[in-house]
Amino acid sequence: MTNDLPLSKEQILDAAEQVLRRFGPDKTSVVDVAKVLGVSHGTLYRHFASKAALREAVTERWLHRSVAIPLEDIAARKDGSAADRLRLWLDTLIAGKRKFAAEDAEMFAMYAEVTLHAVEIIASHVDRLMGQMAVIIEEGIIKGEFKPASSIKTANAIFMATSRFHHPAHVAEWSSEHPNEPFELVWELLLSGIVSSHES
Amino acid sequence: MTNDLPLSKEQILDAAEQVLRRFGPDKTSVVDVAKVLGVSHGTLYRHFASKAALREAVTERWLHRSVAIPLEDIAARKDGSAADRLRLWLDTLIAGKRKFAAEDAEMFAMYAEVTLHAVEIIASHVDRLMGQMAVIIEEGIIKGEFKPASSIKTANAIFMATSRFHHPAHVAEWSSEHPNEPFELVWELLLSGIVSSHES
DNA sequence: CAAGTGACATTATCGTATATTTGTCATTAG
DNA sequence: CTAATGACAAATATACGATAATGTCACTTG
Between chains, do A193 and B192 touch, taking CB under 8 Å as contact? Predict the structure, then answer.
């Protein structure tokens, strides 16, 4: 109607994200999304199996665009020490989540919800992130900056150990505490666990 | 009625816990608790300011009895290495939470709820636990087993870094994953961060 | 007067009739 | 044959009066 080209998933996601932002996840119906696109709601079911699938797809895209891509850039950079880059990577991850929670509370709540139910999507997102960390760690090991170890297992451990600072289940604690102090403690401990002891 | 001695807080907590277990937190009213005690519900308000306060008190007592006390025993023991004792302490904490979540789901849900709202109670419980860990760590430092550092800050960092395995916000993940593998990775990393490098 | 009561106002929950939304599918349009 | 429709049944949500729970307090009781 608005457009005669066949409707794409991306278009639907754009519309869904826009409506979700405007009305909040509780007040958006699939009819609302269809209205924005100028199609009937039945059409959306040719592209997404359910409303939940649509919401998950919106979340997945957000995670990819706003979390994975920016972090990818940091992981791919070759400047500075591995420790600094690892720290920057974590700071960026954590700051990104905090910003999201603070400035886009409704969308964040939806993400937290999806995290509990859409195990697949989250697992693959986390795998991607851990792969990025592993790249940084691997480089640190090659340069002799970090102790030899399985970079992927180390990445896994660091990701787990910093959950409190980036997992959505902990939002409540982020706002009520001094931003960096507890993370600083954990960082120092983790770092001293991975650095090579005969470090120059 | 049932008893002519003045009603004590402990008695009320006993009754409340019993009813909470029987009916679940959603279906228990303060009238139900009063009924078990054979008093009017008004009486309970002479001892607890609100229903929330009563639920918090039940949770607090549970945390003390079932978590803090058993762990205290481990922290106070003087046998074996500090690393082994620290590991045992963490294993006990984690296993305790898992057991609670699995075998007493409704009470656990109440605990998770309280964690979000009753900041004071949880903070003081966590402080107690961190004090216990600090004792173990301090001993490790004195024995030369661990690197010199602030034992309380280290305890803090280890507690934070292991949140994923004992914080109630993560229940969902406990059941769906292989029990010990991820923790093992984190433990190794943390341990290598605290052990003295010139360890015999 | 310390301990407990129970009627009362306030607040939350329940049941249910009503309305919306989700999800399906036979049908239309190109 | 692909894309889209819209009427429809089933599942959910909403509104709202009825019912129950929470929290207060002037009052009894030993």
Answer: yes
How much is the pLDDT for B197?
A: 77
Listed by start position, the domains of chain A span: 1-48, 54-194
Domain B1-48 identical in fold to domain B54-194? no
Q: Which B residues 99-128 touch A at CB under 8 Å?
A: 116, 119
Q: How many beta carbons lie within 10 A of that of residue A168, not counting itself? A: 19
* The pLDDT of residue B178: 74
B1-48 — its CATH code?
Answer: 1.10.10.60
List chain B residues with CB under 8 Å of A147.
192
Q: What is the pLDDT of residues B163-177, one digit of tens each?
A: 999 999 999 999 876
Q: Yes or no: is domain B54-194 CATH 3.30.830.10? A: no
CB–CB of A179/A165 below 8 Å? Answer: no
Q: What single-letter amino acid sits at B95?
A: A
Res A1 pLDDT > 50: no
Query: Alpha-carbon distance B84 to B187, whole Å?
Result: 11
Residue ranges of chain B with per-residue pLDDT less than 50: 1-3, 199-200
